[in-house]
Design goal:
Elements lengths: L1 H12 L10 H37 L1
Length: about 60
């Protein structure tokens, strides 16, 4: 694990230049995809968590 982190650190320390064009809208779309995935996952897991809590409370009574 330490070796992997060292390699990643070295890659960031000596960046190579990409001679390409990156559309600013592409980065925004990527951020939107990541954020919407995490928000959707939070709602999904909250529903499962609520179901489990109800099941435990029913078993206690």
């Amino acid at each position: 694990m330490k070796r992997l982190l060292a390699v990643l650190y070295l890659c960031l320390l000596f960046p190579s230049y990409a001679h390409a064009y990156s559309d600013p809208g592409s980065g925004l779309m990527l951020w939107q995809l990541i954020v919407s995935f995490f928000i959707g996952a939070m709602f999904y897991f909250r529903k499962i968590w609520g179901f489990l809590i109800k099941a435990v409370k029913r078993n206690e009574e």
